Structures are given as structure tokens and as C-alpha cells.
Predict the structure.
Amino acid sequence: MAEIGHGGKKIVERILEPKEAAKKIKGLTEIPIRSQIANEVIDLAYGWFTPLQGFMGKADADAVCRSTQLADGTVWSIPIIFDMTESEISEYGIKEGGTVLLTYQDNPMAIFEIDEIWDYNMEDMCNCIYGTAEQKHPGVVRTCGYKEKFLGGKITLVNRPTINPPYGPYFIPPLEMRKKFKEKAWQAVVVHQTRNVPHTGHEWLMKGAWAQAYGGLPIKEPLCGVLVNAIIGAKRKGDYIDEAIILCQDELRKSGYFGDHNHLTSLTFWDMRYAGPKEAVFHACIRVNLGLTHHMYGRDHAGVGDYYDPYEAHELLQSIPREKLNITPVYSMNWLYCPHCGEITSEGLCSHKKEWQKFSGTLIRSIVQDGVKPPRLIFRPEVFDLVMECAEKYGFGSPFVTDEYLENRTPVFSIPPLGA
Amino acid sequence: MADKYPINLWVNEERYDKLQKAGLADMCEEMLAGLKVIRVYADDAQKDKILKVFPTAKFDASTTKSIELLPRDVKDKIFDKVIEKQNIDIMNDFLGDY
Ligand SMILES: [Zn+2]
């Protein structure tokens, strides 16, 4: 049976078998790509970006900018575009109607059938997507850093990525994810989007969202799960290292704070744009493709600085009719420690406001950085121990991203030689 | 009153031992489910200087209004200063070295 993804379109993996791939790539011009584009090639080929089958042409990109939809009316909020300089286009001899081979790490990765070569006013694009064209906004820096021309057309993977340890078990593309949900017999699955090592505030966000998503389902068998979907992409200094994020999220299940019956950890390759409301809608689209029924949104989802009102994303999501975006947003209030209650509680529940001890990811990072083990009500001891282990094993002594980590880390995935 | 921004010196056993030996253990406050902390305060100008001198540091404007993510060795220096002066009012003195 076909799996139906975002926009009511069938999810199709655009991936060639090695023998066919070897034949198809013969004689094609090779174009090396950078990591952001390689991430997006994987997303396109495995169906994370359904209904997109390739990089956008101008009509789609323009419709995304003007009206948060593709040219055919499907809701979409972030342009997925392939950039190139004018001189590269002429050096490579690229023409509309031509086909090239995209390479990554010096190996063949994907066939790119180029339908269209186009350009766009990037300041205009920034204002539409980010609500600003200020160079202080990290998304604007990325978008304005694009080269001046864009190539639109279909992508077909010729070579599956090798997912390097410890990420292997967490790479679960849409079709496989949907199978997993069926095996688990989950009727409702709520996604927690993260770039963090979890403290108990995050843990309770998930537990609260789980209860909201469980709703009126019967409780005789476990029917509702939480999917942790970590965004793996470009890192900033001071972030937790990726290995710590993915392994510590899973540790909450392994240590029994959740269990196999209600918790699964996974990743999505994506370089954050910090586009706030527009990024919130985009996250919803890819999570529809992963088979989620519910999506958690806290305050200022995918925001940066003070560019977006904390509830702007919620308002945009509420304005989109269900038939256009088939996922239920679950809005989450912050969780905190109340010494009077003696427990982690929600700011929507407890009235001991004067006694509240709020904590943020930044505060926890600061404690960890001091080499201090936080109380178990705030940060699970198993998670703390694992963070420290990851620092030694993967982080060159630090659980946070350093220059040394950026330079010497093992890549999350590798593209092997074809047929290897 | 001018705004004051805390720097949290989280107190593990090692730091607590030092405080006890110096007879300063009652300087600790309990914060976050019993976690011990000594808080030294920076004023506006000192906060700006700290963020400039230590680029990894972050002012948590939304949740805690505190200065976080100073490097470990810098925190140790601030802590040692507190022990030396037997006082938490050490910011001027500390920043004088930078
Ligand atoms: Zn309370």
C-alpha cells in the first residue's frame, strides 16, 4: 500500500540500485557539493521533503516566498534551492535540460536533472522567509551567502550514505519510520524536535505532550509514542556535540524514564535556518512525511534573538487549515522545579510562583561546564554520566562544540565509492 | 537600584570543602532542587565587559537573567577570589586583571 505524505502525495524513495547507478552516471559532469546540499539531497531522495522530488525552480521558490506554498498550492515555507555562480555554470557547461552528477567527499552521490536555471532577489527572499534581511540573523547569513544563480530539477540518489557510528540506529527515513510505528502499533505519535541534551524540563515537555497526544485513546495497550527527532546539521561553537545529543536523548528510554513502548529516537539532516514561524511550518511538513500525528511546539520554536514573538509560530500554524497540513500541533508550556511541590511542574499548573526555580538549557550547560553534577530531579544522572563519556569519546574532552571538534570530528555520514 | 546580574558559581564537593576550610560554607545558597551555588554579581558595565572579554559567555536574558557559560578556569579564578577576599563583592577586583 502506498504511503501518503505531505500534500496528499505518495512518498517515493528516489534511489537507484548500484548496477543501474553505475550505468546511469557514465560520462556525466561531476559537481562537488557542500554538506548543507548533501543533507538536502538525502532529505529529497528518501522522501523527507515529499512532495518535492528535487531542488526548486523559480515558480515554487517564489510561491514559497509570497504565499508559504508551492506553485501547486501545497503548504511549504522554506525554499529548497541549489546555488551556483554564473562562471561555474559556464565552466561546467550546464544547460537547462542537462544532467549532472553531484559528488560528495569525492564520491558519486546523486544525479541532478536540471530543468531550469534561474535567479532571485535574495534580500526579498530573506524578508519573506525570515521577516528581516539583517546580517545579524543566522538564516539571512546563510541565504544571502548563496551564489547568484539557482538550478532547479529532480534528484536521484545513486549511492546510499553510510551512517557512521554512533548515529546508525537513528537514521530512520520516512518509509522505514512508518513501518516502525506500525510495528509498535502506535496510533498517535508526537514529535519532539531537538538540538539539545535533555534536562528534566525537556523530559516533562515530552511527557506532557505524550499525555496530550494520547487524548481519548484506550489505555489497555500502549497506543501513543514520543518520537525524538534531532536536527543534525551545521554546528555552532558552544552547542552540545551531536553524539551527546542523540545518545543522551535515547538514554532517557534506555534508563527507563521512557520505554520501548512509548519512545523512539531518530535524526533528520537539516541545517537550521532559525526562521521561527516559517521554520515551524517546515518542521511540520517533514514530520507529516515521517508519519507523525502530533508536533510539539514550545515558545519561540526555531527562533533566534528577539526576531519573533514567542507565540508567532503558533499563530501561523493555527491559520493553516488541517486539510493542508495534516498534523496536530501540541503547544507546550514551560516546566520548572517548585520546591514547595517538591517536583517538576508546569507553569500552567502550580501557583507557588514566588518559589519557582526555573532552569534553561543554558543554565544546565553552565553547571555541566563547571564539572558539577546537577540534582537528579533536574538532570538525570545517567544522562550526566553519558554526557561526560561522550566528551571523552567524541568531543576531545568537551561535551560542547569546539574548534577541535569542528575540525576533527567523524562525519555523521560518508558517501562511499560507488558499489563499495 | 541599578540592575545586578548574577554569575552562578556551582558548588561541587571540592569547592564545598574549600569553603568549609575557609569558614565560608554559609555563603552558599540553595538553588535548583538543592544544588548549592555562590552568586557573585556584576553591574551593567561589568556585565558588558565580561561578555566582551569572554566571548563564550552568554547572558540568559529570557529565563534566569544570569551570566552563564564562562569557561571553567575563569569560574575557578572567580571562586578563588571569593575565598581569598572572604567576600562575594569581588567583581571589580577580578575584572581589574583583564
Ligand atoms: Zn508548587
